[in-house]
Each structure stands twice: as C-alpha cells, then as structure tokens.
Amino acid sequence: MTLTQLEYLLAVDTYRHFATAAEHCFVTQPTLSMQLQKLEDELGVQLFDRSRVPVRPTELGKDVIEQARVTVSEFKKIQEIVQAQRTGITGELRIGVIPTLAPYLIPLFITDFIQKYPKVHVVVQELVTDSIIEKLRLEMLDVGLLVTPLQEKTIVEIPLFYEAFVGYLHPKHPLFSEQEITPGSIDNEDLWLMNEGHCFRSQVLQICNRTKPPKNVHLDYESGSLETLKRIVETQSGMTLLPELSVMDLPEDKKLLVRPFTDPAPLREVSLVVHKSFLKKRMIEALRETILAHIPTDLKTRNPVRVVKIK
C-alpha cells in the first residue's frame, strides 16, 4: 500500500469517475486503474462497485476511504509544517460561503487579508450549506463560512459572531409604525422568504413559528437573494426578515424600513467551519483573525441567548 494509491483512491471517491480522477491526478486512466486494482488485491477487498455509473464505493470501501483521508491528511500536515517554516503563509485558500452571508461579510475583510498575505491565492465560492459540507468532506474546499450549529460529526465549528435578525417592511405595512417587532406580531401571510435549500429560510420559519411557507393571494415569489427580497418588499408589499449585516450599509431612506426585534432578539451564529482533519491551520487562523478584526464589536461580544437553530 502506497500513499499514491491512497491519493488515487480518494480522487475516484471525489469524482466518481476513473477518467476524471486520473485527469486530476495527472496520470493516465490505465495507470490509475492498475494502482487501484493492486490496492484492492493487497487488501483482498473490492473498494468500488464498478458496475454502477457513476461508480460508488462499496460499504467496506467507505470505511477504507474515510481512513485513507485521515492518513493522507496527516502526511500533508508534515509537508505543511515544513513549508510554513520555509516560506510563511502561502498557497491556495478555498473558501465556501453561504449566499446570505457572502455579499456582506466578504467585502469587510478580503482586501485586508490579501494585502497582509500576498502569497495566498484566495478562491471564494457561494454555496448552500449542504454543498459546503460535502466539498469540505471531499477536500474540494479548505474552509466554510456559514451558520451553525450543525449536526455534522465530521465538521469542526469555530464561532465568530452572532448576527441579529431584523424586519424589513413596506411603508404601508401595519407594523411600520412600530419601533420594534416581535415574532408574534408578524402576519405570516405577507412574509417573503428565501427559496428551499437555504438555512436562512428554515430559521425565519422557526422565528415565525411556522412549518410551511405563507401563501400570498396575488404573487408567490421565493428568492435565492436577500437583495431581491428587499426589492420585492419595496415595490410590492409585506415584509421579510434579514440578517443584520445586510442592512448596515443601506442608504438612509432604506434604513427607515428596518425594524429590530425586541430583546432578546433572535440571532444566528456565524462560524468558520473545517473538516475534522483539516489542513492549512496557520492560514485558516490568519483568516479567522482578519475577519474578527473587521466585524462590528457588538456582534462579537453579544450574549447568544436566543440563537435560532437550523432544522
């Protein structure tokens, strides 16, 4: 059994296609297939069900692959320690960020991070939570920025700050005259939501004590963009809930549409997340420190008494 064979094994698990895996490993498909066959012969087990398209690991293969990821990761940590000593913080950092966070958080810190660490190439992808978790598992991302807590035993969560939910109301909405709102005061029938797949949608429904989305009489519109939800409220009617960072830089006339919740306001926990066997520790710690340096103080020091869970 060799490290190269384990890397080929992980590549096939990641891409579920021998030719694609070989391409990413910079070898020919026959070479990759031969090495995997040698590994299976040595172990005396079949690791992949080749009769299926795309290929899938066997039940025993899943266990072997999980351990192979740990083994390869630990080997790479040795290389990482030596490289960091020689060159400092350098390399590629692949970040996955949920769409309800990316447009408001990334601009706060990314310029400073790039200037501080010019030898780091940053790649940012906007993805929903499930995709970030899967890509972390497959080592296609190094770190995620998303909302926690999660129910994922393979994920390590590093909480960064607590962001309040706020209401965003049309000027003719009945609650517009109020200085603050409560979950019980929200009429669910005029509430605009994110579409399925976004954890923010689940949290909003929980705040409003609903299991199903509202049904508008004239228009049903579920969006994947908070900015679109703002425009729907402004031009149509009703209200939506938004995360705090998304309203901080609004023009003054739009800030008039924002209403905070009464204390204790519902919060979402924003965390930096990594796979349990994550690499690039110094780089990720540098990312954490840079983010915290640019977050408003009250978000970092807030008492998380009412964190809305993700279901």
Automatic annotation (TrEMBL):
Database matches in CDD domains: PBP2_OxyR
Domain of life: Bacteria
Species assigned in the record: Nibribacter ruber
Family in the record: Belongs to the LysR transcriptional regulatory family.
GO MF term list: DNA binding; DNA-binding transcription factor activity
Coiled coil: none
Taxonomic path: Bacteria, Pseudomonadati, Bacteroidota, Cytophagia, Cytophagales
Keywords noted in UniProt: DNA-binding, Transcription, Transcription regulation
Alphabetized InterPro entries for the sequence: HTH-type_LysR_regulators, LysR_HTH_N, LysR_subst-bd, WH-like_DNA-bd_sf, WH_DNA-bd_sf
Pfam families for the chain: HTH_1, LysR_substrate
Domain HTH lysR-type: 1-58
Record-given protein name: LysR family transcriptional regulator
Cellular component annotations (GO), alphabetically ordered: cytosol
